[in-house]
Specification:
Helix content is about 45%, strand content about 15%. By secondary structure, it is an alpha/beta fold. It folds into 2 domains: about 200 residues, Rossmann fold (3-Layer(aba) Sandwich), CATH 3.40.50.720; about 240 residues, Rossmann fold. Helix 5 runs parallel beside helix 6 and helix 13 packs across helix 14.
């Protein structure tokens, strides 16, 4: 079976590489020739652990190909995955489906023989139906079905998530389409991965419902952290006590500065807008969207408060810029809301992140100074702010902070360290919910 994957962003590139690892012949298509050339040269456009090796191995094995020639790739394919971006649409908060629909119109005339067109992009309810209409109206003779197969890939663990997922969700409404998807995921079926077949609408909604639930869980523990600070409780112990209940579970109960990244911010907002379109209320998710935005902005105020209300002339070191570790993704990262107010307050800001500094330079003010190591970043700093929980930051000792910094203030927004140990070392330590 031959596969075409249209779009070589995060989802498309990871999915294409993993399908080729399953043994399928995969062609990844993008309309950016420079991007294709970079990938073919081994220069990945994103940082994802293990991805470069996976691409190199399968390309060398003749199973993975890259091209700008959509027509040829689609004509030869039994399954075509649409994996282009669906960012938040400017002005109204809906998911921008213009790229998805443009691909549908472009691929329609290229279809030859029976083909399943599969939306891998995160799309609102009704998108699959519209894609089907576009293809049918553009090419009335096309022999095709449209299916939905949402991705559940965590940045930093995407390859493992694809190879050994919790579940595979497929929205398909003909036996022929279901047979094709079963064939594509046969390697996972053999290891007894649950594969759920649903309608198009149900599959599309499962993705949004899942991400929104996790966003709610994150915001809930963040609000509990604020309450813990007010009453003198420890949010780590609260989260542990909650997580031991199997109905709740421990994942996503880690207090911090608020969620960011490519999925939760846009998907929660898109779900709220979809509900509004259908005259339904998603008050819980709507509240989470507003709360999370406010929380990220409030983190700069925490830093300023820790500096007794004035950061003018102070050297503030920022450790971590990406929204989470093991990625270079800066989309909606808390650092984007924390750093500008510090600069506006007159602070000198240095920053270090193992992977995302190249991305950050395009998004943050030019006055930020970037260092090439954590110790270089905190050298002579009056205060340090932990924004992203990279493992290399966990390895730093209290003595290293004391010996390297000029001041003694630490604002740990990820609770990497033990408060008692830091305070015994002479550090004026602030954390979340403790």
């Amino acid at each position: 079976m031959k596969i075409a994957v249209i779009g070589t962003g995060y989802v498309g590139l990871v999915s294409g590489a993993c399908f080729s690892e399953f043994g399928f012949d995969v062609t990844c298509v993008d309309n950016d020739p420079d991007k294709i050339a970079r990938i073919m040269a081994g220069d990945m456009p994103i940082y994802e652990p293990g991805l470069a090796d996976l691409v190199e191995r399968n390309a060398a094995g003749g199973r993975l190909h890259f091209t700008t020639d959509l027509k040829t790739a689609v004509a030869a394919a039994d399954a075509v995955f649409i994996a282009v971006g669906t960012p938040t649409r400017r002005g109204d908060g809906h998911a921008d489906l213009s790229f998805v629909y443009a691909v549908a119109r472009e691929l329609a005339p290229c279809l030859q023989g029976y083909t399943v067109v599969i939306t891998k992009s995160t799309v609102p309810v009704g998108t699959g139906r519209e894609v089907s209409k576009i293809i049918a109206s553009t090419n009335p003779d096309a022999n095709f079905d449209v299916a939905s197969n949402p991705e559940f890939l965590r940045e930093g663990a995407a390859i493992a998530d694809f190879m050994r997922p919790d579940r595979v969700v497929v929205g398909a409404e003909t036996d022929a389409a279901r047979d094709v998807l079963r064939g594509l995921y046969r390697p996972l079926y053999l290891i007894e991965t649950p594969i759920l077949f649903t309608s198009l609408e149900t599959s599309e909604l499962i993705k949004y419902a899942s991400n929104a639930f996790l966003a709610v869980k994150i915001s809930y523990i963040n609000q509990m952290a604020d309450l813990c600070e007010a009453v003198g409780a420890n949010v780590h112990d609260v989260a542990k006590g909650m997580g031991l209940d199997k109905r709740i579970g421990s994942k996503f109960l880690h207090a911090g500065p608020g969620y960011g990244g490519s999925c939760f911010p846009k998907d929660t907002l898109a779900l709220v807008k979809t509900a509004e379109d259908h005259h339904q209320k998603m008050s819980i998710v709507d509240g989470v969207v507003a709360y999370n935005d406010a929380r990220k902005k409030a983190m700069a105020k925490r830093v300023i408060a820790a500096m007794r209300g004035d950061v003018s002339g102070k050297h503030i070191a920022i450790l971590g810029l990406a929204f989470k570790p093991e990625t270079d993704d800066m989309r909606d990262s808390p650092s984007l809301d924390i750093i500008p107010p510090l600069l506006a307050g007159g602070a000198e800001v240095t920053a270090y992140d193992p992977k995302s500094m190249g991305e950050a330079k395009a998004l943050l003010p030019e006055t930020v100074r970037y260092e090439q190591s954590a110790l270089g970043c905190i050298a002579d700093a009056d205060a340090v702010v932990i924004v992203t929980e990279w493992n290399e930051f966990r390895a730093l000792t209290a003595a290293q902070f004391v010996d390297t910094m000029r001041g003694t203030t630490m604002i740990d927004l990820r609770n990497l360290y033990q408060p008692d140990q830091m305070r015994v070392a002479g550090i004026n330590y602030f954390s979340i919910g403790r």
